[in-house]
Amino acid sequence: MASVLTDTRISLGVTTTMSEALDLKSRTSLLNFARGLSLANGTGAEQADRVWDDNRTIAPSGTDDLDLSGALIDAFGATATFVKVKGIFVYAAAGNTNNVVIGGAAATQFVGPFGAAAHTIAVPPGQLFGITASTNGWPVVNAASDLLRIANSGAGTSVIYDIVILGTSA
Q: Residues with Cβ < 8 Å from 131, sequence gap 6 or more?
């Protein structure tokens, strides 16, 4: 029996208060920016039926090429084969010295949101990166555009990162 994704929600929130002291009073402005997406189970627009997550370590100056088309194992021991990616979420551990770099695999690169095969995004220690394409997703083609590279930006120390990938099987 195939697993089913239920209650998939993605959210982003920024809350801050800006204030200014005046002679006899102060004024403030509250920003509460919150947006979210909900994905139903399936393979169409605003749907996902695959999720893969892990906590991983990369050696100094090393790389971690994630094969989105058949080498990732999900929480139930099944192969998580993506045909489209709907979201990528990475957190670089606060204790890292080096950045976690996403994108730029040497061959059969998953281009997805990066614009070109060589483009990358650096995630500094203690920071996070997340991006979605919940309507159409980014295509994954076996042996043509299926490797998502995660790299350690420097020598000397390993990096640790958490990753979640949401997508579809068709």
A: 87, 88, 113
Count of domains forming the chain: 1
CA 78 distance to own-chain centroid: 20
CA pair distance 9, 164, nearest whole angstrom: 13
49: enclosing H helix or E strand: none
Q: Report the CATH number that the domain containing residue 154 is assigned in CATH.
A: 2.60.120.10
> Count of H helices and E strands in the chain?
0, 14
Q: What is the pLDDT of residues 68-86, one digit of tens each?
A: 998 999 999 999 999 999 9
| Residue-wise pLDDT tens digits, 144-170 | 999 999 999 999 999 999 999 999 999
pTM above 0.85, yes or no: yes
